[in-house]
């Protein structure tokens, strides 16, 4: 056992084993002996020849890396627990996520199917939206900073992040970020903005679909030259995601997809397999009503009989894709049909019942990624199902015939189910 592996930080965080090394230090598997839980510990090493001024900047960047995600309590951003100064260098104590990165998955399995990339993109958009609303720009979104823990997608490594309320720590003439995933305007020396993160998201999703980022070349200078002078190549494996990718990779940030438009296009792509069905066409019945109107046409001095012709719209009937659906505003008592025999049934208690349901496997199949209206229900009979209910108070849930207790407002519930 090395000296580092015997080290206990702040009398509570014991280093257990090394997970991996990078340019700036080492990530360790650790154990919090006070709370008896596994943690990840990032050891940041300073270059030996670093000047004192640069050493101060390094420490400030380390504290910023810890503070940024600590402000952003969301399922899609890694949770930071503590920062410790030990042996003259900083250590960041984080949530332990034993899962591969998107980069590792691409290297191991090659390009991913569009359905899975769409799920990853939707989660990263949620993470970025949370960060951007807090005034934080990530600046280094790339596949190695995205962890895939089952259906959970986690954005990590806010080392280059900055908030709108903090001074920039980047020195003039120093390029920061990963050239293959950095936005063109940032590579040209402009200040990073939320739309710069969206470009990096586009490059990350492109790499997931194609196996490599759009402007990757043999060296940094060639990559930056291609980024500045060439148009992004059209993705070949994107399918319905192509408008999302091309919109995010728009070089002019003012024409680049905004967060809201990216979400809209992505959700359209996710709904693609269902878009082939025709919406029920409203039917109309001609209603002819004849009545006497006791009005006098002044100019003629005669009574007038009016023929009133109206179009009455008939109800289109229930949607063929909804499982049992209770009309909005009616009582929620009683289980919907199919609840007793289905692996999973979800019914909306309100209009904020958002669900994500998928079938796990080498190529994950997305069954639903939608928000149900009050009274709408969905049922799933697949033998294995993963499901996320984003607001447990907004949905009624039945698992293998048994209704789950209602959750708290805003509480997220995850289900990994096997049919009984």
From TrEMBL:
InterPro entries: Kinase-like_dom_sf, NEK_Ser/Thr_kinase, Prot_kinase_dom, Protein_kinase_ATP_BS, Ser/Thr_kinase_AS. Keywords: ATP-binding, Kinase, Membrane, Nucleotide-binding, Transferase, Transmembrane, Transmembrane helix. One of its GO terms (molecular function) is protein serine/threonine kinase activity. The chain crosses the membrane at residues 284-309. Residues 320-338 have a biased composition (Low complexity). Residues 13-270 form the Protein kinase domain. ATP binds at residue 42. Gene3D superfamilies: Phosphorylase Kinase, domain 1, Transferase(Phosphotransferase) domain 1. The keyword ATP-binding applies. It comes from the Bacteria. The keyword Plastid does not apply. SMART domains: S_TKc (SM00220). Its EC number is 2.7.11.1. Residues 315-338 are annotated as: Disordered. Belongs to the protein kinase superfamily. NEK Ser/Thr protein kinase family. NIMA subfamily. This is non-specific serine/threonine protein kinase. The lineage of its organism: Bacteria, Bacillati, Actinomycetota, Actinomycetes, Streptosporangiales.
């Amino acid at each position: 056992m090395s000296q580092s592996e015997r080290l206990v930080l702040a009398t509570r965080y014991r280093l257990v084993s090394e997970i991996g090394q990078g340019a700036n230090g080492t990530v360790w598997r650790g154990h919090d002996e006070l709370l008896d839980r596994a943690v990840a510990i990032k050891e940041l090493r300073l270059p030996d020849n670093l000047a004192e001024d640069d050493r101060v900047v390094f420490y400030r960047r380390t504290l910023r890396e810890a503070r940024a995600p600590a402000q952003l309590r969301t399922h899609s951003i890694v949770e930071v627990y503590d920062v410790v100064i030990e042996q003259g260098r900083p250590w960041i104590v984080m949530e332990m996520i034993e899962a591969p990165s998107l980069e590792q998955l691409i290297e191991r399995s090659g390009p991913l199917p569009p359905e899975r990339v769409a799920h990853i993109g939707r989660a990263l958009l949620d993470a970025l939206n949370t960060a951007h609303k807090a005034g934080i720009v990530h600046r280094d979104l790339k596949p190695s900073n995205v962890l895939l823990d089952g259906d959970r997608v986690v954005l990590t490594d806010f080392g280059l992040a900055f908030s709108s309320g903090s001074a920039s720590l980047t020195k003039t003439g120093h390029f920061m970020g990963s050239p293959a995933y950095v936005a063109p305007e940032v590579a040209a020396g402009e200040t990073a903005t939320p739309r710069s993160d969206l470009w990096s998201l586009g490059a990350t999703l492109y790499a997931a679909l194609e196996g490599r980022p759009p402007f990757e070349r043999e060296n940094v200078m060639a990559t930056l030259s291609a980024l500045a002078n060439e148009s992004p190549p059209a993705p070949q494996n994107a399918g319905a995601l192509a408008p999302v990718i091309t919109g995010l990779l728009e070089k002019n940030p003012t024409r680049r997809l905004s967060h809201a438009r990216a979400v809209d296009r992505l959700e359209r792509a996710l709904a693609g397999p269902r878009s082939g069905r025709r919406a029920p066409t409203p039917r109309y019945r001609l209603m002819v009503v004849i009545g006497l109107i006791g009005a006098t046409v002044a100019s003629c001095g005669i009574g007038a009989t009016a023929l009133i012709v109206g179009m009455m719209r008939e109800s289109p009937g229930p949607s063929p894709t909804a499982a049992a659906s209770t009309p909005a505003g009616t009582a929620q008592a009683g289980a919907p049909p199919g609840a007793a025999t289905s692996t999973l049934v979800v019914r909306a208690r309100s209009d904020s019942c958002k669900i994500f349901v998928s079938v796990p496997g080498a190529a994950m199949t997305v069954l639903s990624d939608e928000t149900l209206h009050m009274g709408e229900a969905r049922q799933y009979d697949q033998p294995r199902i993963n499901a996320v209910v984003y607001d447990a108070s907004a949905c009624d849930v039945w698992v293998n015939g048994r209704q789950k207790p209602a959750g708290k407002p805003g509480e997220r519930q995850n289900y990994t189910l096997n049919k009984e």
